[in-house]
Design a protein that fits this description.
Helix content: 25-40%
Oligomer: single chain
Low-confidence stretches: none
Distance between the termini: 57 Å
Strand content: 15-25%
Order of helices and strands: HEEEHHEEEHEEEHHEEEEEEHHE
Radius of gyration: 23 Å
């Protein structure tokens, strides 16, 4: 396969990443090397060679602007796989799949057929037990290689690295408590309370505008709440959407 034949696959993958970033802008690509340094195919085509020409300058700029981390363990929040664990694909160790599995993440591929155009890739997870026996099991690794895959994996992309609250309480600190309740009226909002052991709401604020919809807050607390909420709007909206589906919201701070 020459560079021209590879181009549609590369464009598909970049469209997949764009779709994922529209869902969550802080997405990060981790690998054994940066994407711009990858060589594809038997003849080792670089992405720069594949995306050559003025027609693909935007895609190249997007690729270079992606937040990336390499090698695998450079990303400080990653979980290193155990030395006695492997993931095999078609009988060959697949390090990227192993890291994706251990970090509850997904792989990024270039949609080459027959395996890489699907939203999940079948592989075999192998782990050594205390008796030094290899225990194999079949696993499905989420794959991102087309724009449609970003939609398929929307929940995974949205929730990655975030903790789901065990109740309506999503934040406690700085002198106030924040809750998002189920079955509320349609305008996305949150409630401000003094303590976690009360259900008496001091005020409710619209997430989008931070206007007070009901109740009132002392000026100093109002300023603190608005300053906090301004930096949390995206996850507050996501939490509201989860509550609409009957799911618990995201926890924005671990409870003390």
């Amino acid at each position: 396969m020459n560079a021209e034949e590879m181009l549609p696959h590369v464009l598909s993958t970049l469209a997949a990443v764009r779709g994922a970033k529209r869902i969550r802008d802080d997405i990060l690509v981790a690998g054994h090397m940066s994407l711009s340094n990858l060589l594809l195919g038997d003849r080792g085509y670089s992405l720069a060679a594949i995306l050559r020409g003025d027609a693909h300058k935007d895609e190249w700029r997007f690729l270079r602007s992606l937040e990336q981390s390499s090698p695998w363990d450079e990303y400080p929040h990653s979980t290193r796989p155990d030395a006695f664990q492997e993931v095999h694909f078609n009988g060959v160790p697949a390090v990227g799949m192993l890291w994706a599995r251990q970090n509850d993440s997904m792989i990024l591929s270039f949609a080459f057929h027959p395996n890489w155009g699907e939203s999940h890739v079948s592989a075999q997870f192998r782990e050594m037990n205390d008796a030094r026996e290899i225990i194999p099991s079949e696993v499905q690794i989420p794959n991102l290689s087309t724009r449609e895959h970003a939609t398929v994996h929307r929940e995974l992309i949205t929730s990655y690295g975030r903790t789901v609250a065990s109740s309506s309480l999503i934040y406690e600190g700085n002198g106030f408590v924040i809750r998002i309740w189920f079955n509320e009226h349609p305008l996305p909002h949150f409630h401000v309370l003094l303590r976690r052991d009360t259900s008496d709401s001091l005020a409710s604020l619209a997430i989008d505008t931070l206007d007070i919809l009901a109740g009132d807050l002392p000026p100093a607390m109002r300023n603190k709440v608005k300053e906090w909420a301004e930096s949390q709007k995206e996850i507050l909206i996501l939490s509201w959407e989860r509550c609409k589906l009957g799911q618990h919201p995201y926890l924005l701070q671990e409870e003390p």
